[in-house]
Amino acid sequence: MDGGIGVRLVNYTRKPLETVTWAALISYWDGWETEAFDRITRKDVELHLPRVLGYGHESILEHAVLTFAIEGCSRVCTHQLVRHRLASYTQQSQRYITLNPSDVEETFVIPESVKEKPELYEKWKRLMKSAIELYEETYRAGVHQEDARFILPQAVRTKIVVTMNLRELKHFLGLRACERAQWEIRKVAWKMLEEIAKNEELRPIIKWARLGPRCVQLGYCPEGELMPPGCWKRTREKWKALAGSKPEV
Ligand SMILES: Cc1cc2nc3c(=O)[nH]c(=O)nc-3n(C[C@H](O)[C@H](O)[C@H](O)COP(=O)(O)OP(=O)(O)OC[C@H]3O[C@@H](n4cnc5c(N)ncnc54)[C@H](O)[C@@H]3O)c2cc1C
Fold first, then answer.
1. How far apart, in Å, do the first and last CA atoms of the chain sit?
2. Catalytic site residue 176?
């Protein structure tokens, strides 16, 4: 857990890259048949998939889905995540939670920029502690949790399960692994990418589909004039270290 935020790839389509390759071959291969799926080898995947993706035929990526568990991030973060519409989500309900007023940081995400200012940080913690206490007082007074939760700041930690196909994941990472994205959703995006990189079966798709921020995908930054100095180099180096290769663009 990093700052209390954890991301884990919990499940994905069986034989994901074989599935995508087999689907792609229906377009090009006259001898294609249903049973060919069982015969597809890693060598076939390596032979066909990078080439087809290189043509920009990305719809095939929709045949593999990945499911991630994300916990400890704020509702600020999940609100940004769920704006991505081509995905499935299940989130912890705030109707059945218990909060701990003795440990504010267990309940809320407090940004580092606030922690760097000790007086402000103390004020934040006091306010958050009061919010939990008032939440509990409201609940004890007989008000249902579904109404008591209105008092909680959006910094409250949450848990969410997200399932995305590889094409939408690429779109999501393009926008959210970028330095333009807010730090918490960016942290989640990179952790998702790290989870894929740790997985031998999935790892090659990072390079072949250029799963990463838009500068890696496109070879240029569409928001260049808005970006902080050094971002281009920094981001691409970070991606390279993770993917184990240079973006070939
Ligand atoms: C740096 C940054 C700042 C942002 N700031 C704001 C902000 O100030 N206010 C705000 O409201 N949002 C903001 N957003 C969110 C942003 O506007 C999008 O809602 C979010 O990134 C989801 O992306 P999306 O709509 O491209 O794609 P997704 O919902 O992930 O969909 C993927 C793609 O599918 C297609 N698609 C999906 N649904 C439709 C549809 N109904 N019709 C046609 N095509 C569709 C589009 O091609 C889309 O790009 C911000 C995002 C970023 C990255």
1. 34
2. yes
Tell me the three state secondary structure of residue 182.
coil
pLDDT in tens, 42-71: 999 999 999 999 999 999 999 999 999 999
77, 78, 84: residue to mutate for ligand 1 pocket, most atoms within 8 A of CB: 84
What confidence tens digit (pLDDT) does each residue in 179-226 have? 999 999 999 999 999 999 999 999 999 999 999 999 999 999 998 878
pTM for the full predicted model = 0.94
CB 196 within 8 A of CB 13: no
Q: How far is the CA of 84 from the centre of ligand 1 (A)?
A: 6
